[in-house]
Q: What sequence folds into this?
């Protein structure tokens, strides 16, 4: 059919439809409803899929993939309430706090004195007042939360719950100042700051020598984890790692969010989280900032509108970065991927509205990396089912068990 004939055909169809709707005006609202429902169902159905796997097909990777069914054999059905990346992320943002009052797991803090005089804590899950799965030689999974994250986050609970059910030990390494831990020095944390993780792994290796160490990082915590693994290479005390919703390229993420209305809403939300966390420690950070820059930190924080402003005001100044953009470029873990020397699973979503960069090319340069990408998961959300249920704890448990089995054969 020629283009002119196709246009005439479409025009005739539209004229016929117009005539029908004029004769049957009540059909308009039903037509609109049917069209809207059809569009919604189509957009939902195309999200149902298995994860796409990207890796170099080594013997080890083939063995690992054969024992991680949650990313190789499972179809993920996004909830109708969370059918795209924005709704996944928004649902998580609402649910992250509500979930805190529902779970029976308790927590016990073990404080670590750091070499620079600061402190952080290891947050151990407890049941009936006792730490879980530390009696024998069970692998120990270190969890690293996202920006200002901690024990209140549902993905931390879900991951701990999956580890506990599988007989694995687990512990949350808190970022400085998070989970209500007071900072003792004017030192915060950032995406490129790996010293606390490095000291924590040395501490755990020395105090819990019967437990092999694994780690799972989420969002900012994932970036820190990959940076650490790249820096340590074959000297890493962590035997295997999982990265979830990693930003990878912070400059790309910042530019991507700045281009859209929703992206700018996320930037404001992230900035608000950072402001709140800094104000919790103003008695330590305030005098430091006043002495070094001659300004009142509380007043400066009140001017912050988004995460970029906060990183300009505080993050870049407390670390060796000249600007926020320098911080984003230099602390991104993307270039560290090729240096990783232990098995590593990257879990990501195509519709992540925050961590929008996916390193398809980079993973092909390192045979130790497996990347699983799902169509619908948002940012550290990954909800499935009629009633949204977060499933990202499952591949963490499966991957740790799979890597451990390679060393026990």
A:
């Amino acid at each position: 059919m020629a283009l002119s004939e196709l246009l005439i055909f479409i025009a005739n169809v539209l004229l016929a439809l117009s005539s029908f709707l004029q004769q049957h005006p009540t059909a308009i609202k039903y037509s609109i409803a049917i069209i809207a429902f059809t569009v919604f169902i189509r957009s939902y159905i195309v999200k149902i899929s298995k994860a796409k796997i990207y890796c170099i097909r080594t013997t080890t990777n083939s063995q690992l993939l054969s024992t991680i069914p949650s990313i190789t054999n499972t179809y993920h059905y996004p909830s109708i309430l969370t059918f795209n990346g924005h709704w996944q992320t928004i649902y998580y943002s609402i649910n992250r706090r509500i979930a805190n009052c529902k779970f029976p797991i308790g927590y016990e803090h073990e404080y670590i004195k750091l070499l620079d005089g600061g402190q952080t804590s290891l947050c151990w899950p407890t049941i009936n007042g006792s730490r879980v799965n530390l009696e024998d030689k069970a692998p120990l999974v270190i969890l690293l939360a996202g920006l200002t994250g901690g024990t209140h986050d549902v993905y931390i609970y879900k991951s701990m719950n999956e580890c506990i059910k599988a007989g694995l030990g687990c512990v949350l390494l808190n970022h400085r100042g998070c989970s209500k831990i007071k900072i003792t020095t004017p030192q915060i944390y950032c995406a490129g700051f790996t010293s606390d993780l490095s000291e924590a792994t040395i501490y755990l290796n020395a105090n819990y020598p019967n437990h092999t160490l694994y780690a799972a990082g989420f969002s900012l915590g994932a970036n820190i984890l990959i940076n650490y693994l790249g820096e340590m290479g074959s000297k890493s005390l962590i035997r295997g790692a999982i990265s979830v919703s990693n930003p990878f390229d912070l400059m790309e993420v910042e530019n991507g969010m700045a281009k859209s209305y929703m992206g700018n809403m996320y930037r404001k939300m992230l900035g608000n989280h950072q402001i709140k966390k800094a104000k919790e420690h103003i008695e330590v950070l305030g005098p430091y900032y006043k002495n070094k820059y001659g300004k009142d930190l509380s007043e400066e924080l009140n001017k912050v509108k988004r995460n970029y402003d906060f990183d300009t005001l505080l993050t870049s100044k407390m670390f060796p970065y000249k600007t926020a953009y320098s911080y984003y470029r230099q602390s991104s873990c993307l270039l560290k991927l090729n240096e990783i020397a232990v098995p590593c699973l990257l879990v990501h979503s195509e519709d992540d509205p925050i961590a929008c960069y996916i390193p398809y090319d980079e993973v092909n340069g390192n045979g130790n990396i497996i990347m699983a990408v799902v169509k619908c998961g948002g940012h550290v959300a990954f909800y499935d089912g009629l009633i949204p249920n977060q499933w990202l704890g499952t591949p963490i448990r499966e991957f740790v068990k799979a890597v451990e089995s390679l060393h026990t054969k």
